[in-house]
Protein backbone atom coordinates (compact mmCIF):
# COMPACT_ATOMS: atom_id res chain seq x y z
CA UNK A 1 0.00 0.00 0.00
CA UNK A 2 2.74 2.45 0.99
CA UNK A 3 4.63 2.01 -2.29
CA UNK A 4 1.48 1.82 -4.44
CA UNK A 5 0.25 5.21 -3.24
CA UNK A 6 3.43 6.88 -4.54
CA UNK A 7 2.33 6.04 -8.08
CA UNK A 8 -1.08 7.74 -8.06
CA UNK A 9 -1.10 10.28 -10.95
CA UNK A 10 -2.80 12.98 -8.85
CA UNK A 11 -0.01 12.74 -6.30
CA UNK A 12 2.67 12.98 -8.99
CA UNK A 13 0.99 16.09 -10.39
CA UNK A 14 0.89 17.63 -6.92
CA UNK A 15 4.58 17.20 -6.16
CA UNK A 16 5.66 18.57 -9.55
CA UNK A 17 3.52 21.72 -9.49
CA UNK A 18 5.33 24.77 -10.86
CA UNK A 19 4.29 26.55 -7.66
CA UNK A 20 6.61 24.22 -5.73
CA UNK A 21 9.46 25.07 -8.11
CA UNK A 22 8.87 28.77 -7.53
CA UNK A 23 8.78 28.40 -3.75
CA UNK A 24 12.08 26.52 -3.73
CA UNK A 25 13.77 28.90 -6.18
CA UNK A 26 12.65 31.94 -4.18
CA UNK A 27 13.83 30.50 -0.86
CA UNK A 28 17.20 29.37 -2.23
CA UNK A 29 17.77 32.07 -4.87
CA UNK A 30 18.55 29.52 -7.58
CA UNK A 31 17.23 28.64 -11.05
CA UNK A 32 17.79 24.88 -11.18
CA UNK A 33 15.51 23.00 -8.75
CA UNK A 34 15.27 19.22 -8.78
CA UNK A 35 12.93 16.67 -7.20
CA UNK A 36 14.68 13.80 -5.42
CA UNK A 37 13.73 10.57 -7.21
CA UNK A 38 12.52 8.00 -4.66
CA UNK A 39 12.43 10.90 -2.22
CA UNK A 40 8.67 11.40 -2.32
CA UNK A 41 5.70 9.50 -1.00
CA UNK A 42 2.73 9.30 1.30
CA UNK A 43 3.65 7.98 4.74
CA UNK A 44 1.29 5.87 6.78
CA UNK A 45 2.42 5.76 10.42
CA UNK A 46 0.28 3.22 12.24
CA UNK A 47 -0.49 3.41 15.97
CA UNK A 48 2.11 1.86 18.28
CA UNK A 49 4.34 0.83 15.33
CA UNK A 50 8.06 1.36 15.87
CA UNK A 51 9.89 -0.56 13.13
CA UNK A 52 9.37 2.09 10.43
CA UNK A 53 9.18 5.19 12.61
CA UNK A 54 11.79 7.74 11.55
CA UNK A 55 14.12 8.50 14.45
CA UNK A 56 16.11 11.74 14.76
CA UNK A 57 17.87 12.48 11.48
CA UNK A 58 18.53 15.16 8.90
CA UNK A 59 17.42 14.73 5.32
CA UNK A 60 20.74 15.09 3.53
CA UNK A 61 22.15 12.07 5.34
CA UNK A 62 19.37 9.87 3.96
CA UNK A 63 18.84 11.53 0.55
CA UNK A 64 22.42 12.36 -0.54
CA UNK A 65 21.39 14.71 -3.35
CA UNK A 66 22.83 18.05 -2.26
CA UNK A 67 23.06 19.79 1.08
CA UNK A 68 20.95 22.62 -0.31
CA UNK A 69 17.54 20.98 -0.12
CA UNK A 70 14.12 21.32 1.47
CA UNK A 71 11.52 18.75 2.54
CA UNK A 72 7.93 19.70 1.68
CA UNK A 73 5.82 18.04 4.41
CA UNK A 74 2.02 18.16 4.70
CA UNK A 75 -0.52 16.14 6.73
CA UNK A 76 -3.47 14.38 5.11
CA UNK A 77 -5.41 14.18 8.39
CA UNK A 78 -5.93 16.61 11.24
CA UNK A 79 -3.08 15.96 13.65
CA UNK A 80 -3.54 15.80 17.39
CA UNK A 81 -0.68 15.35 19.84
CA UNK A 82 -1.54 11.67 20.43
CA UNK A 83 -0.88 10.94 16.73
CA UNK A 84 2.77 11.90 17.09
CA UNK A 85 3.25 14.94 14.83
CA UNK A 86 6.68 15.50 13.31
CA UNK A 87 9.21 16.75 15.88
CA UNK A 88 11.69 19.44 14.81
CA UNK A 89 14.80 20.96 16.42
CA UNK A 90 14.57 24.64 15.41
CA UNK A 91 17.75 26.20 13.98
CA UNK A 92 19.62 22.88 14.18
CA UNK A 93 20.50 23.28 10.49
CA UNK A 94 23.22 25.74 11.52
CA UNK A 95 25.15 22.85 13.05
CA UNK A 96 25.94 21.33 9.65
CA UNK A 97 26.57 17.65 8.93
CA UNK A 98 26.33 15.18 11.84
CA UNK A 99 27.84 11.76 12.41
CA UNK A 100 25.61 8.71 12.83
CA UNK A 101 25.72 5.14 14.08
CA UNK A 102 24.46 2.64 11.51
CA UNK A 103 22.63 0.44 14.04
CA UNK A 104 20.24 1.23 16.85
CA UNK A 105 20.96 -1.08 19.83
CA UNK A 106 17.60 -0.14 21.38
CA UNK A 107 15.64 -1.23 18.28
CA UNK A 108 17.40 -4.23 16.65
CA UNK A 109 14.40 -4.87 14.37
CA UNK A 110 15.04 -1.61 12.50
CA UNK A 111 17.03 -1.66 9.26
CA UNK A 112 18.44 0.85 6.75
CA UNK A 113 17.87 4.51 7.50
CA UNK A 114 15.37 3.56 10.21
CA UNK A 115 18.20 2.00 12.22
CA UNK A 116 20.59 4.97 12.13
CA UNK A 117 21.11 7.04 15.29
CA UNK A 118 22.76 10.41 15.56
CA UNK A 119 25.91 10.80 17.62
CA UNK A 120 25.19 12.64 20.90
CA UNK A 121 21.51 12.58 20.03
CA UNK A 122 20.13 13.48 23.46
CA UNK A 123 22.55 16.38 23.86
CA UNK A 124 21.64 17.75 20.43
CA UNK A 125 17.92 17.64 21.18
CA UNK A 126 18.51 19.37 24.52
CA UNK A 127 20.70 22.01 22.86
CA UNK A 128 18.12 23.10 20.28
CA UNK A 129 14.85 22.10 21.93
CA UNK A 130 11.91 20.73 19.97
CA UNK A 131 8.62 21.83 18.46
CA UNK A 132 5.86 19.51 17.22
CA UNK A 133 3.37 21.57 15.18
CA UNK A 134 -0.24 20.43 15.17
CA UNK A 135 -1.30 20.81 11.56
CA UNK A 136 -4.17 19.94 9.26
CA UNK A 137 -4.62 19.18 5.55
CA UNK A 138 -3.58 22.20 3.52
CA UNK A 139 -0.79 23.18 5.93
CA UNK A 140 2.78 22.92 4.69
CA UNK A 141 6.02 22.57 6.63
CA UNK A 142 9.30 23.31 4.86
CA UNK A 143 12.26 21.59 6.52
CA UNK A 144 15.88 22.33 5.59
CA UNK A 145 17.93 19.27 4.61
CA UNK A 146 20.18 19.86 7.67
CA UNK A 147 17.40 20.37 10.24
CA UNK A 148 17.13 17.59 12.83
CA UNK A 149 13.66 16.06 12.96
CA UNK A 150 11.86 12.80 13.71
CA UNK A 151 8.46 11.13 13.56
CA UNK A 152 6.55 11.41 16.79
CA UNK A 153 5.20 8.33 18.57
CA UNK A 154 1.64 7.58 17.47
CA UNK A 155 -0.30 6.50 20.57
CA UNK A 156 -3.72 7.25 19.07
CA UNK A 157 -6.15 4.75 17.60
CA UNK A 158 -5.75 5.81 13.95
CA UNK A 159 -2.98 6.01 11.37
CA UNK A 160 -1.12 9.24 10.70
CA UNK A 161 -1.05 10.01 6.95
CA UNK A 162 1.26 12.63 5.50
CA UNK A 163 2.89 13.70 2.22
CA UNK A 164 6.62 14.27 1.83
CA UNK A 165 8.66 15.26 -1.18
CA UNK A 166 12.17 16.67 -1.44
CA UNK A 167 13.49 19.48 -3.59
CA UNK A 168 17.22 20.13 -3.95
CA UNK A 169 19.52 22.41 -5.92
CA UNK A 170 21.46 21.19 -8.94
CA UNK A 171 23.78 24.18 -8.43
CA UNK A 172 25.00 23.35 -4.94
CA UNK A 173 28.71 22.29 -4.94
CA UNK A 174 28.04 19.48 -2.45
CA UNK A 175 25.67 17.80 -4.90
CA UNK A 176 27.96 18.32 -7.87
CA UNK A 177 30.83 16.68 -5.95
CA UNK A 178 28.84 13.49 -5.35
CA UNK A 179 27.02 13.61 -8.71
CA UNK A 180 23.65 13.91 -6.89
CA UNK A 181 24.22 10.28 -5.94
CA UNK A 182 20.83 9.21 -4.67
CA UNK A 183 19.22 8.08 -1.47
CA UNK A 184 20.20 5.37 0.97
CA UNK A 185 16.83 3.68 0.32
CA UNK A 186 18.03 2.96 -3.24
CA UNK A 187 21.04 1.02 -1.97
CA UNK A 188 23.57 3.83 -1.76
CA UNK A 189 25.77 3.39 1.30
CA UNK A 190 26.41 6.49 3.41
CA UNK A 191 29.87 5.16 4.32
CA UNK A 192 30.80 5.00 0.62
CA UNK A 193 29.89 8.66 0.02
CA UNK A 194 30.68 10.17 3.42
CA UNK A 195 32.85 7.78 5.47
CA UNK A 196 33.59 10.65 7.84
CA UNK A 197 29.90 10.73 8.88
CA UNK A 198 29.69 7.07 9.88
CA UNK A 199 30.55 5.64 13.30
CA UNK A 200 31.10 1.90 12.94
TrEMBL record:
Keywords assigned by UniProt, alphabetized: Dioxygenase, Oxidoreductase
Tell me the superkingdom of the source: Bacteria
Q: What Gene3D superfamilies has UniProt attached to this entry?
A: q2cbj1_9rhob like domain
Name the SUPFAM superfamilies for this protein. Clavaminate synthase-like
On whether Chloroplast is a keyword of this UniProt record, the answer is no
Instruction: Please list the GO terms describing molecular function.
Output: dioxygenase activity
Q: What is this protein called?
A: Phytanoyl-CoA dioxygenase family protein
Q: Which organism is it from?
A: Candidatus Synechococcus calcipolaris G9
Taxonomic lineage: Bacteria, Bacillati, Cyanobacteriota, Cyanophyceae, Synechococcales
Amino acid sequence: MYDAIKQIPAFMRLLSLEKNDRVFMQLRNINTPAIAAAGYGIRIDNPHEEKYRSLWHYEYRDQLRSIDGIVFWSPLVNLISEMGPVQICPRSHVGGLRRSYLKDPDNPEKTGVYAMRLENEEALIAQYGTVAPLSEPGDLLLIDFLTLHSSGVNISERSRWSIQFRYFSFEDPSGIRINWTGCVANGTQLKDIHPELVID
